[in-house]
Amino acid sequence: MSSFLVFFIVFLAVIVDFCWLDKNRKRWGWMNSWTKRGKIFFFVGFLAISVFVYVTMGVTYL
Fold it and tell me: Do 11 and 44 contact (CB within 8 A), yes or no?
């Protein structure tokens, strides 16, 4: 599976959970007071950390 597809699936799953599945804000309620910019930084940071972990663990098996 290509790396881009893996990142896309993980990021899409988090965004779908945040925007669509969590209707009562029970899982993501701790972000209610955050600004839109703060939420964007959080998700971009999450994606960056995911990429870093995936790449560093993949280097071991190259």
Answer: no
Residue type, 1: M
How far apart are the C-alpha atoms of 47 and 8, rounded to whole Å?
9
What is the residue type of 58? G
- Are the beta carbons of 22 and 28 closer than 8 angstroms? yes
pTM of the full structure: 0.62
Q: Which residues contact 27 (CB under 8 A, 6 or more apart)?
A: 17
Separation between Cα atoms, residue 7 and residue 37, nearest integer Å: 22
Token pair in block for residue 33: 């007071």
pLDDT in tens, 22-48: 667 677 778 888 898 998 898 889 888
Tell me the backbone φ, ψ of residue 15, rounded to 5 degrees: -65, -40
